[in-house]
Amino acid sequence: MSQVKPQVLKGFRDYLPEVMAPREQMLNTVATVFRSFGFAPLATPALEYAEVILGKYGAEGDKLLYRFRDNGDRDVALRYDLTVPLARVMGQHKHLLKPFRRYQIAPVWRAEKPGKGRFREFSQCDVDIVGSSSLLADFECMQVGVAVLKSLGVTKFVMRINDRRVLDGLMARLGVTTTDLKHEILRSIDKLPKVGWDGVRDELATKIEFNASQLAAIRKFLNGDISALDDSVVDMEVAGPGIESLNTLLSWADELGIRSYFEVDLSIARGLDYYTSTIYETFLTELPEFGSVMSGGRYDGLLSLFSKDDMPAVGISLGVDRLLAGLQELGVLPESEAAPQVFVTVFDNSMEAYSIRVASVLRSYGLRVQLHLQPGQKLGKQFKAAARSGANAVVIAGPDEMASDCISLKRLSTGEQHDGVALESAAKVLSTWLTDSDEDT
Amino acid sequence: MSQVKPQVLKGFRDYLPEVMAPREQMLNTVATVFRSFGFAPLATPALEYAEVILGKYGAEGDKLLYRFRDNGDRDVALRYDLTVPLARVMGQHKHLLKPFRRYQIAPVWRAEKPGKGRFREFSQCDVDIVGSSSLLADFECMQVGVAVLKSLGVTKFVMRINDRRVLDGLMARLGVTTTDLKHEILRSIDKLPKVGWDGVRDELATKIEFNASQLAAIRKFLNGDISALDDSVVDMEVAGPGIESLNTLLSWADELGIRSYFEVDLSIARGLDYYTSTIYETFLTELPEFGSVMSGGRYDGLLSLFSKDDMPAVGISLGVDRLLAGLQELGVLPESEAAPQVFVTVFDNSMEAYSIRVASVLRSYGLRVQLHLQPGQKLGKQFKAAARSGANAVVIAGPDEMASDCISLKRLSTGEQHDGVALESAAKVLSTWLTDSDEDT
Asked: Considering the domain boundaries, does residue A367 fall inside one?
């Protein structure tokens, strides 16, 4: 009919079932872990008043907004992240109990230049605690991050932690006072794992002229562990509370037997300006090139945008698509629930009702069952359709089977066949096959 | 800081945790049922080329689009439903195996006048089978609808089914040939449950002058059951296949022991123009005023919008928010997972590490545990915070408890308290309490 070309916009994409099924399973697991820590789900509109969103991400960010006038001539924009909507929610719904612990998993939109792994529509998965200044809240977020990865079957990863106040202590020692320059330097330091010390030094040189002793202090800072920090490297009055807080976090991790997942890394600075103390990034040990799959920190202040109340906050954000790609690469993706487990053939038109009943009985045992929808088709073709569907087993339910209220079962991977299996015993045979195939993979 | 008022756009809303938590649980259950029938999840972009979406819903629909020019001056629009994107997917991704069974749960946007229960952003939950003309596919969709409601704990409901061809048989008998008039009449007939026969007759009179025998035929049609239909009421050549198909569907329902959930209702016409044969709507017996919570039918043709291939299709769509409200009204909403089950107090600053460990151990047993984040607070205040959190039980973990690696437990509903419970036995006590409280509610 229509001559319109079926295509998506540049930077947008469909998630077809083969991708969407494991993605949905992953997010279900993640949400279950979030809930076990007392976090509850929140959803906010995709579209907000532009003034709610504008001016929070700097001029750069504002340029990337999908902003337009709606039919009522309102100035509106698609959300750019999940943090500003959270600030709006905290300002608008005054009755919410604090500390407010919420998670939100939802798409955001940014009109960025699309590139490898960079899309204009992508999902964010944020968990935050609003209204607590306690370091316990920081640790809850770090713990939830560890628990999420473990629950997804990832065993080798490291969460690199740092504290903005320790970085501030360095700045104070270096005599850097302007915010802009501070952020420039943080951005350079943040690149240490990528470009090494020489790279950092060269990049710093383009921004400010440090003398030899200053450069030595920076180098010692980036190489050293926190116990080695003293007034020769950082202003201890500024950095002290940060060092103490990092030590406490590590002692708690020790207490829980999860110390090995954490590492202090003074080069971690986080790009965003709003962090105030604890910051962390998480790397898969076997896939460092993937970058951080889970990052965040404490950002007291940002959530008071729409409120006169004090809104200390700490959170951690999971890179959904990056982590999914990582799980795939590591081979720990759960068996996809996109494919049926059992394929029920339809012998001929007169046998439709029996096949319907068989499918229904098998589903009642919790199996994912696909019923073949071309009853006229030769059995050979139906078997081919079964193989294409990804099912592990095929059911034949012909007149002979119906006469004795049973079915024949064929296992596709091995060709093994059981004839005349009573309907109520079928689920047992099938689940043995399915368990075996889980072990194979 | 900012003077911006924290508010959402008219017709938009936040889902705060108290609403979002049961909603998310409901949709998880629904998705599990979908998967058991071999359906797999699909996601498509919120934003599409306007030409993909335009012209599919008539002039009325086009007016309701959120349509604008993006930063690259492309003519774009937010999706209006999940059916046109499905048609686009079928046209674009030629490799997808047919029959293609997918579900999609996602928001859509319509610039309608907001009203009670009518929002500009709302979720659709669609399950469809594309590429099968078999009546088996229609029955799969009806069955999945029944299975969804049963899995949500709804026992009293009826799915009213009809067939467009039976309605066409009536039109043929009445001599109505123009599509517009046909749809006008269908829309009047559809109102039977609301306005009764007199209302339908009066509304018909404003559109076309029927003679007494025509009116008698319509009345007999609307009152009668399908076995009473003959050439005096409908053109049997047109209606015959529809009647036969309804009978087959009912016989299959009989075979599965779910016949009582179905009722043929010849007044069901469905507002939308694109249905071609089977149609159905589902009503909660105790809440008829809620309207249909689950509707759909066969719509061969619509999905060929972007393809030269034949795309017979059948589906069922669940009214997410309406059904959620229904479950709440019926009192069958599952216990909300928004609230923690256990609240762990923090005796004082020196006891933080022990409380962290206690929370972690309890979480490892699958409990939802909230750790108190104001360690300095008096225990009385912490207990108040526990009560507000909705938790069932409070944990006290002071120095005495730590000395013997145990905790004290208090049940909030009864005041019952167990002191000196070994950490590894605590989960047992707690789950007894939680099971009891499930039975209470």
From this structure: yes
